[in-house]
Amino acid sequence: MMVTNGEPSSYGDFSHPLASTATWNECVQYCYDLGSCVAVFDNNCQMFEIGGIETAKRNETSRIAIKILMDNSTTETCPADDSGTEEGIYITNTTYQNYSISYNDPTWTFVSQTLTCPTNFSLFVRPNGLWCMQVIEHYACCNRTVAIKMCSTNYSASQLSGVDNQAEYDYISALTIPIYQNVTSSLIGNVQYNFTGIWLDGLRNSSCTGVTTSPCNTISAFSFLDPTLSYPPQGYPWLSGNPNGLTSPGDAIALRVNTESTYGMDDTA
């Protein structure tokens, strides 16, 4: 927290989260501990969350504390003075908020942006950008074309997601296993399934069609449309023997669940 002399001058929503008997140090600590807090003013602990304050002005008779925190860690070092341009980031499972604070004597200006994932989607911060993801269960078995159309039509122009890393793979696996349990426990449209899967981004390159030798038996055989996916992506652990292109044309990728403990990527039609 950067504590300096000043007071809020243009702002919207605020709160007084502590009792009137709370000390200034307790107020500053409260803001520091609350991820979404960006500033507190020494007026019965007047607190502003990200987006709630636009400007503050220097005032030698008042105290304001401004949070400078570059990520969700607590290891950032406070700036040497209060007249530079500073930044902060607050991340939750569904929301990414970043803000900057610049100074032009005698005014600090707060600028913020917020990205919130759609309902039931989770946020992942990738090296190439932000990405919201969810596993959607269809009422019946569907091919990749239907899955693409369902994403685009029903979920705000969404698309098939790639899997950037192990954390994303763990996330989609955890959501797919209950689907496996559901579809294998009873008939689905008079059909008894013994496995399930979800379609993912990844389409076999034409140069690897019908080719099962290296590099066509690796992730390099596939191209991707996911705009923030790293390359090569690290979230595609293959089932044993895959990718092999044996299921003609074997040009797409799905996470296949054979049992609750046996699952992984499969190249399939």
UniProtKB/TrEMBL annotation:
PANTHER family xrefs: C-TYPE LECTIN-RELATED (PTHR47629), PAN-3 DOMAIN-CONTAINING PROTEIN (PTHR47629:SF11)
Residue stretches making up the PAN-3 domain: 1-112
Pfam families registered for this protein in UniProt: PAN_3 (PF08277)
Organism of this sequence: Caenorhabditis remanei (Caenorhabditis vulgaris)
Identification of the protein by name: PAN-3 domain-containing protein
Matches recorded under InterPro entries: CTDL_fold (IPR016187), PAN-3_domain (IPR006583)
